[in-house]
Records
---
Amino acid sequence: MARSRTKVQAEFVLFDVIYEDGRQTSNRKVPTNIIGGIDGDEPARAFIEAQDAEIAERSGQSRGPIARIVRAGAKTK
């Protein structure tokens, strides 16, 4: 008897973040429930900026402004 397979929805989408000073962080997790729709991936920027603010508060070091975000593994043009 054949097994039925159900498609599992990922809980997170991974993003690479490039800062204005040229630094990059990879594989930043953003919950799937906040992205998509009309705004596309733009809500991910606000989520990552909030993460950066929390990290800066705890560590005392600011990461600086974000230049752009791209999905991890996405091909660049």
---
Amino acid sequence: MNVLSSLAVLGLLVLFHESGHFLAAKSQGILVNGFSIGFGPAIFKRKFKGVTYALRVLPLGGFVSFPDDDQETEIAEDDPNLLKNRPILQRAIVISAGVIANLLLAWLVLVGQGSFAGLPNQPDPGVLVVSVQEEQAAAKAGLNTGDKVIRIDGIELGRGQEALQAFVEIIKNTPDKSIDIESFRDGEKILLNIKPSNVEGTGRIGAQLQPNINLSLRPAKNLGEIFSNANSQFLDLFNQTVTGYKGLITDFGSTAKQLSGPVKIVEIGAQLSEQGGSGLVLFAALVSINLAVLNSLPLPLLDGGQLALLLIEGVRGQPIPPKLQIAFMQSGLLLIIGLSLVLIIRDTAQLSLVQQLISR
């Protein structure tokens, strides 16, 4: 059930993203001929008012299609309601609407939690270990996913973002030096010694961390507290996500190892859903913000890539030649499919059930 819950959340996020593009186009009178969730062959397909709605076999995303790209369409090339014939601003609204929809959904989910379920309590002391990379310093020291680090070298980490920042700073500033770590695992105190690796003078341990969030809820005092808490949580999650993607640019070698594919994302969602509705809300908000930030990157096939082409068109004063646009998008297709397959295979191999089967 936990896996099904996380899959349902992912499906909802993709649906919301594509609905953003769809509604932005329809509200401006721009012609749309397809709305699909997933890629590949259609499991379900139905046409309604000129739009073909489809559910496809590979649940790795979705897309909204336009007659502009349909070579068999009977619509005239100069039809003013085709997307390509609309002003740049209108096209930019359609392209960016998916990102805006995901950001809005994340905020609404947090507001909804505060309104109907309650607000999270203050974080518990320490830092939570979300995942550990194989053969890295954290794994070699015996640090496990789910461990709650309370002290480093006798220093209390405190709570929340301050605890996370203190932990990261100590690790960064102590490459090649042994550090004593005090943590809790299933309620039992664990003492470990870890030696951060040296990556260009900066300490790294190969672990994904987050504040030790207390997922129990309390009633909100008033409406102002609901919005204040939602805004604070949203900004924290957004800043963490942006910082993570910045790491891909500034320190790709280390950060790339933390990338997760669909299998790992579903596994994390299942683990969080075990904590109840509050865990699932955190998962939905975090993944929705991640989808928004990821799609904002100026890469082929992503919304950011299309916006980049639109910006170049605005600077040039004329559209980019179709052959160059097609080459740009096709290169992105190969990259994304290849990366998705690698991540799916890697994440599947690391699942505890698969590891048990291999070890037999």
---
Amino acid sequence: MKTLSLKLEDQIFNDAEGVISKINKNRNRYINEAVDFYNHYNKRKILASKLAKESKLVRQESMSVLAEFELISHEDKTV
């Protein structure tokens, strides 16, 4: 486990202390869980951004393939 010195804005600290006192959790555990939650949140945002970027890269090719499949499907129905 790593030791960390942390400076929080007064309002954030006061809000956290208020929550901690109501949920009966120690400050260290609360901050660990908060950072873990925020890490998961940001990893999902990064992945979503990456997927959107890669989707744009293949969009035109995907539309071309779809058009070809539609032609094939249409030809099968006329035979």
